[in-house]
Amino acid sequence: MKTIGLIGGMSWESTTSYYQALNQGIKQRLGGLHSAKICLYSVDFDEIEKLQHKGQWNKTAEILASAAKSVEAGGADFILICTNTMHKVAPEIASAVSIPLLHIADATAEQLQKDGVKKVGLLGTNFTMEQDFYKGRLTDNFSIDVVVPEQADRETVHQIIYQELCLGAICDASRDKYLQIIDKLLVQGAEAVILGCTEIALLVQPQHTSAKLYDTTEIHAKAAIDMALASDNLIQCE
Fold first, then answer.
1. Of the ranges 45-59, 100-114, 224-238, which one carries the lowest mean pLDDT score?
2. SS3 state of residue 236
3. Which Pfam families does the UniProt record give (predicted)?
4. Fewer beta carbons within 10 angstroms: which end of the chain, N or C?
5. Where are the domains of the chain?
6. Residue 112 main-chain phi, psi, to 5 deg
7. Which one is the CATH code of 105-215: 3.90.1150.10, 3.30.360.10, 3.40.50.10740, 3.40.50.1860?
8. Is the pLDDT of residue 189 over 60?
9. Percent of the chain whose predicted confidence (pLDDT) is above 70
10. Active site (catalytic) residues
11. Rg from Cα positions in the chain
12. What does residue 123 show for φ and ψ, rounded to 5 degrees?
């Protein structure tokens, strides 16, 4: 089994979801007392968040590249960035280490293609919804059309992420707002909706809507499990 390197803490609430999903997934695949081999570097999100909103992405890249080097030195065989937004600096992080980086957008797009989804709605931070580092990857590399909410709704989604979900606050009223926005994406022709921020799945889950939801944390973790067990001689449970 390969060791999974995690760059987490953005926020720590969603990083715990990664840790749980990875360990549960390994146990389901292998049975017994098996658990995932993980090397985690958790950053201080307050520092990252301030730099994000100042547009100082080069400094965030330096912090996460240093974290990636530490994870590699700790024995990781490949790396996951446990946040959609910080994939904006994924190229800088990948170039700082000699081990592979498993990109969250690639894992999500591969699942969308497998399911035959050609047009998808995207929820996330303003950075993820408005900039091309995520949307462009889906469109250019996987030929998937991406639709995002209108400007006012994008601001609502963004503010709920940073002012509530990243602080561990789950509010029914905010869920209702998200569900209304999801309905609008479906009207725009989206066949499914990407929960493109690792915090959103803490608020919106499949039982809340008839829309097909793609939880990027769950998808990313599953892809990591596949990678960790690839070419492994351990017998997997059926």
1. 224-238
2. coil
3. Asp_Glu_race (PF01177)
4. C
5. 4-103+220-229, 105-215
6. -60, -45
7. 3.40.50.1860
8. yes
9. 97
10. 83, 197
11. 17
12. -110, 145
